[in-house]
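Fold sample X.
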Amino acid sequence: MRDGLVSSGSMAMKLRHWWQFTVADLRGPRGFRGTLLDRIPAGAKRVDRRWWIYAALYLLIAVGIWLRVEHIFSHNPMDHIWSDPQRHWEQGTETLRRDPMTMTDPVMYQVYIGVLAKLTLGEPFLVALYTALLACLTPWIWYRFARELMPGRLQATAVWAALSLLPSWIAIYSYFMQETLLLPLLGASLYASWRCRRKQTLSSFLLMVTLWTFAGLTRGIAIPLAAVVTTWLWLVQPRKLAKAGYSLALLALLMGPLAYRSHAAMHMISPHGIGQLVALYLRSGKREIHVHYSREGAQWNYWFGSPSTGEKPLAPLSDWTTERDGQVHARIHIENGAEDWAKALARYPLTLERYLSLTRENLIYLFFGSSWPDNNRERLLEKISHHSRWLWAPLTLLLLIGTALYWRRLQGARLFAVVLGTWVVVQGVLPIAVNEGRYRKPAEGMLLVQALLVAAAVRRRSAASGRRGMRDSFDEPADAPFAIHTPNGQAVPPVLTQVEVSREQREKDDALA
């Protein structure tokens, strides 16, 4: 009995001593965390750092995908068939309609809705499924564009993560609105443009022209952007005659039937839609527009007002609201073509005073207006999207200044800065339509991309300044080649090892890490 107790006590003592020595060995002189970091090789630390950055970005992308799927299935587009979404749904599902409002809107979104309705038969689950697929593909398409535009994969992945979580790019997919198709088409057009810039082949140029045409037939704002990009690339690339000839033939093939269609229905050649209605509404300065159409005994009456005119975009900082009041009326005989539209527009000449007033109003609504219809503040994502409108005006101003200061260091991204500037001028300054916060969505993605580009340019300048400072600290002249001297006094030419090349490239790719 006593021998058993002695044996048990000795065993317990040995176990306690073993545990104490083990803990002390693990703790080491710098504690548990310091000892663990000391035992990780230096190369593994660098790899782990990059790996963790990618892991965090892909986690954000996964969260964005989940948010998009959850939001669309919770707030199905089929539950919001009213106002503009109802108009888009009916125009797409009733394919042979030729009423004036159907001819006013661009055709591409009507085609998309028609295909969606045919594939789903209007079943809410299938509509949500295909819409969620499109919503999740949109940030990935912009990621492919960012891979062409940016120097490293890390920056492009950051673009993917940022756009995946952008609330205004999530909430809009619960409604049948043109932006749901414009956003992926714009990303695809930009991708095709920078792919054409890299490859400079005829096929890549024609692919770019095709995608820009589809984007322009979805929303007219893509047309001036397409003009800037295609003209720029055509001027700097070879085979100008072949690219111009085939592009004109392609445009004739795509736009010719649409031009005939608009002339047959509205006696006007306007393949991208009848834009006189929104032009008259803008120039009139009225709160509502009433249009009476007539054609061979048939009559249509439409009226509408922009949702911007019913809000206070600067609240709670200011109670400012539009000065628009009253109604503008127009009687359009379709057989007269554009003649009646010209008479209606002539009643409201665009004087300098009127232009400045309309432009001020348009800029306020564009940068501070709430996006409609995705501004239901009882839903978290739409509420966040509504409040995030305060970010875009200061970000735009900051990026315009940063782009001007770092223009020389933007290098291959200068064309993109011109595209963004074109959007600001056309959408904000030119009198083309009464602006809404919804019209800001395409620029939100471009602004985030430009922010990363400017940040990379700032980092390159800081790195260049640091290298100049280190070079000036040597006794040798700045332009003298750096040499390594052996003990016997012989100079060894500088050799850049593979490790140094890899590190330099890794630092370039991790410009924003």
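Fold sample Y, listed below.
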Amino acid sequence: MNMIGKPERTTQRRVIKLFEGELGYRYLGDWIDREHNSNVEEDQLAAYLRRASYGEAHISAAIRKLKVEASNTVRSLYDNNQAVYGLLRYGVSVQVEAGKPSETVKLINWSNPHANDFAITEEVTLRGGHERRPDLVLYINGIAIGVIELKNSRVSIGDGIRQVLSNQRPEFNATFFSTIQIVFAGSDSEGLQYGTIGTAEKYFLKWKEDETDDSRYKLDKYLLKICDKDRLLELMHDFVLFDAGVKKLPRVHQFFGIKAAQENIRRSEGGIIWHTQGSGKSIVMVLLAKWILENNANARVVVITDRDELDKQIKGVFAGAGEAIHRTSSGRDLMSVLAQAKPRLLCSLVHKFGQRGVDDFDAFIKELEAQPSKTVGDLFVFVDECHRTQGGKLHKAMTALMPNAVFIGFTGTPLLKKDAQTSIEVFGRYIHTYKFGEAVEDEVVLDLIYEARDIDQRLGSEDKIEAWFDAKTKGLNDWQKDELKKKWGTMQHVLSSRSRKERVVQDVIFDFSVKPRLSSERGNAILVAASIYDACKYFELFQKTPFRGRCGLVTSYNPVTQDVTREDTGANLESDKQFIYNTYTDLLKTVVAKPAMTKTESYEEDVKSLFITQPANMKLLIVVSKLLTGFDAPSCTYLYIDKEMQDHGLFQAICRTNRLDGDDKEFGYIVDYKGLLQKVEKAIAVYTSELDTTAGGADPGILLKDRLEKGRERLDETLEVLALLCEPVEPPKGELQYIRHFCGNTEIATDLEEREPQRAALYKATASLVRAYAGIADEMEEAGYSADDIKRVKARVEESIALRDTVRRAAGELLDLKAYEADMRHLIDTYIEADEPRKISPFDDISLIDLIVKSGIADAIAGQLAGLKGNREAIAETIENNVRSKIVKERMNDPDFFDRISALLEEVIRDRRAKALDYEAYLKRMAEIVKTLAAGKTEDMPVQLDTPGKRALYNNLGKNEDLAMRLDSAVKFSRSDDWRGVEPKERAIKAALYKELQDKDEVERVFVIVKAQREY
């Protein structure tokens, strides 16, 4: 009897025939009952190696070494997989007799793919851990290199992905995956997604090729594309990247971009690769550089950037991928290195091609061209952000110094006509393009939402201002007064600037109070100021708000006393330069400079790191021009622009917000205080007729959605989808009819099973409706809805939620919400005046959490939250935000405890939103969570674990009370005074931990928890 289910089994049989008939793989059979299934089938591998003319001794030694690397129990799956990949890629070095040289046994014939033995088998039962059974496994020469999980059309492809991920866990079958290079999940309804070992669900990829071909299932179409013997070996050989602990395969645009570049390089031709911001240009650089260096023994690759920030980032990317890259320190160092055969891979700032003290630059260029510096090797020059570096004197120097180099330009923005001609002259035509719209469609980056905000600058008394001006300029004649006004602008502007900045500051703080992504403390923002002076002013204002200590200032300024030696006027007033200098001096007074860095650089490194890794503790970065290119922070969700910007600079800046970062980040938000972009019917055009749409067929049109226009469009679409889903329900469309339509006879299992797709669609559509409604619920009139429409839509939303809950209960099922919906947007029912933003936390001198513990939840609401005027939704969200904030800030003290509290919190929130709890029951459960959170322990905690440190060790060591007590004693015995941050003292504690744990990785994990405990 078929226990798997006919639809899935039918798909599986079809796929096997596809691999046999069209791809030429051998079918090895059904291995469900076969004993000793392995990722290295020794008989098959040995048979292949014999056909490749290797001797028995070499074969035996090579297989033994492969199996040892694949089954190393000390290393992680990532490390084992990397070691195995090295053997597959480069061969196994074996020595069969002492005194004789080692020989390399090639496990795969990369040069002739069809000489290898490609095979497929099904139902491969894996034992050793908890038993699992992948649907299909692909083998090359007896080595498992691919796993395919198939689902029937009624089940989410996400189930297949999560199954692949759980199979890789140590308690299941991690060892089997040490040889796996690619994993697939697919179904006839959703097509195919691919990843590799350790790829998180949200980073599984979709292939896209020959889109007009609709002749068969997308599942079959793309298995044929990717698993073609030549294509599969090429992917494994040239497109696998081990990047600082994460194994990566290319996205489709990266694959074809590199393929196109390879063709140009074979012809020694340059060109331009335009891949939109955030789509992974750095990975393209790494993979292309690796290919060039491997395929041309004389090749050398030079990566050129025009900003120090990008130069550091490029070095970091290559280093993370295991590629040693030399970062030049000066122009002299650069030319010295180019004159030697090594290093073969280096990066430099474009400015280092210039020369100081050159009066006649044209003569200098002619001299260079007549007698160019000696360079060794075939040079391939990658120019990052080439739209900025392709022109001007520095580039002429660069091409004069390296006249025979092949130049490849990389850009994330389309070239304007004024740039395009110069760029094409230097680099050649477009090699490959990947436009913003394509990246959004492929879910590589997020779409952008634009909102213009006007700051009113009315003045109270112009007469008084003019009188003040006349008094201050009494000694000046009319011409001098006019010149002064021209320099500073009108006095009205000068006097209103502080007021305006205060309004912007209040506006930003208001957003952090009410915008879900910001108030949850998972997202943060960048504010772009017009000048360093303005940035410092903003920073000063934010220090008087709850952002104190959670706001960073990153500009090109570095304070030196020479800046202010001539600034003192004796009037006891700060000049602009003095204000900037004093702001930075105060900011840096407690900063300790890191090795080879200034205090300013050390401070910037710290705030950038916090911004990326701890958004709750670094909410806002204030910048002028730094960090607007080459700075990737997935947490960054909002960009506030208070600076005149245009063209490339504007587009690169706004793309700081569109990096993927979890289901709760749906868009990148742009808030414009300068009126940079004018509203057009449905969108905002960043580039207009000046765009060059002729080169390479690229269409660089980029649109930003107007917030309310987009919000209404989404809401109307979701209402229509829901109406279509409910249209087939029989009259009179009461509860009974809805239950029959979506569930059938609930006492018959097959009825429920057959109607599962309808219910899944209903749940997903309802979730989309609630999100869309919440996004504009408090601005529906501004979005163009009439009063009657607003009532109608609100009623429809309530009815839809009730219908979903009724159907869910009738079906007796809990849907996997991860596959369908992100967190619901918060509904904001109360308004706060823009000039008086409500701050959620901290509240006065005592936090809301402490107040609940001290006086009870009812008194806390009556006191601290009285301003919310009984709005239950707003009160609930305020309490939840405070609890979530405390969890985020203190999680490292005890990850296990705070993760459990977080799960409880999400459960309560989910029940509240689903209206499964009445308000009183909700408050009771929240009070219990708050008290548990404040106590730092649950009621079942053993009595002798009487300190936070002991409890944290207990919680995070599998509730092993004896081990927790031993580690507590070990830490207290081995610690020294002021040990944190002092490496020898920290090593002494780690050594004491190792005596108990006997596991280096476990020591590092536990040490982080120990370091977070104040008692140690």
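Sample Y note: The longest strand covers residues 143-151.
Also: The chain has a mean pLDDT of 78.
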